[in-house]
Amino acid sequence: MQKIGRNDPCWCGSGKKYKKCHCDFDEIIREHSLLGEIVPDRKLIKNNEQIEKIRESGKINTAVLDYVSAHIKEGVTTEDIDRWVYEQTTAMGAVPAPLNYEGFPKSVCTSVNDQVCHGIPSKNVVLKDGDIINVDVSTIYNGYFSDASRMFCIGNVSDENRRLVEVTKECVQLGLEQVKPWGHLGDIGQVINDNAKKNGYSVVREIGGHGVGLEFHEDPWVSYVTTKGTDMLLAPGFMFTIEPMINMGTHRIFVDEKDDWTVYTADGKPSAQWEIQVLVTETGYEVISH
Ligand code: MF3
Ligand code: CO
């Protein structure tokens, strides 16, 4: 790490003197690093200016999800949802992040019942009574990224499936309550996995969360089957998603060979996912999009 003078400008780009900005921060990082812990790289630490820009993106992302919440119902196709997301996002001067992302053909991911994630909207998928669906919305605004998803219960959903949706939401909330400066990503994975198992469910292993903000998917990759006190140190200014996929049956999954995107449960049982975007602050956390 390069040596910065106490009166030099801070590496975070705030314009403040190092001694008034990330000097103490670096000392704490150094201590944890010497203990062999995984610490976030400087490029993962957002300054206040960047945070404000990402907040604006997050507000649009949340507003798009609110629009979906207000309009989703039986008889709607997932292509209708895709159109709403495209129209609402662009009307607010933003761009849907999934569109053309690594070849993804639509503006939003819509994953129904045994679809775990990355479902592609289609005019052939008509929402019917009893379905559960994840709508995953991601936004680029002035070059800054936001990402969140919600579950929706269509009409009369079975108690069994409704409980999966609710327990998954509870998993995210429990994970969020673990977010504090100098905690660890593993604290989040531990409570999520514990709560899923306690309810007889399993957590998807191969797909997880990610850093976010300056890019759609930043380091690190975030697992939700981790152990308390392990994995990356949570430092103020670090931003990531909490987005566990919880399966009613086996944790095993497969990717649809026909479209190379849609992920399904191996046993055909339902899966649920909620996603929030979280910033680690000096005192705890801030939800950037939900
Ligand atoms: N929104 C997803 C996530 O939470 C990523 C989807 S990539 C896409 O990370 F291309 F499928 F949109
Ligand atoms: Co995400």
Keywords:
four-stranded antiparallel beta sheet, alpha+beta, binds cobalt (II) ion, single chain, binds 2-amino-4-trifluoromethylsulfanyl-butyric acid, globular, three-stranded antiparallel beta sheet, 290 residues
Taking pLDDT < 50 over at least 5 consecutive residues as the criterion, the unreliable ranges are: none
Shape: globular
* Major sheet: 4 strands, antiparallel
State the helicity in percent bands. Answer: 25-40%
Q: Please provide the ordered H/E string of secondary-structure elements.
A: HHHEEEEEHHEEEEEEEEEE
Number of separate strands: 15
Q: Determine the number of helices (DSSP H or I, runs of at least 4 residues).
A: 5
List each distinct ligand once: 2-amino-4-trifluoromethylsulfanyl-butyric acid, cobalt (II) ion
Q: What is the gyration radius calculated from CA atoms?
A: 20 Å
Can you walk through the features of this model?
The chain has 290 residues and is α+β, with helices and mostly antiparallel strands. It is built from five helices and 15 strands. It has helices spanning 23-34, 48-71, 78-91, 159-176, 185-198, and strands at residues 95-96, 109-112, 115-117, 132-141, 144-153, 202-203, 209-211, 218-222, 239-242, 245-247, 253-255, 263-265, 271-273, 276-280, 285-289. Strands 1, 2, 4 and 5 form a four-stranded antiparallel β-sheet that branches. Strands 3-12-11 form a three-stranded antiparallel β-sheet, with no helix packed on it. Strand 11 (253-255) and strand 12 (263-265) form a beta hairpin. The longest helix is centred in the N-terminal third of the chain and has 24 residues, at 48-71. The mean pLDDT is 98. The protein binds 2-amino-4-trifluoromethylsulfanyl-butyric acid and cobalt (II) ion. 2-amino-4-trifluoromethylsulfanyl-butyric acid binds at residues 98, 101-102, 104, 109, 118, 136, 138, 147, 210, 243, 275.
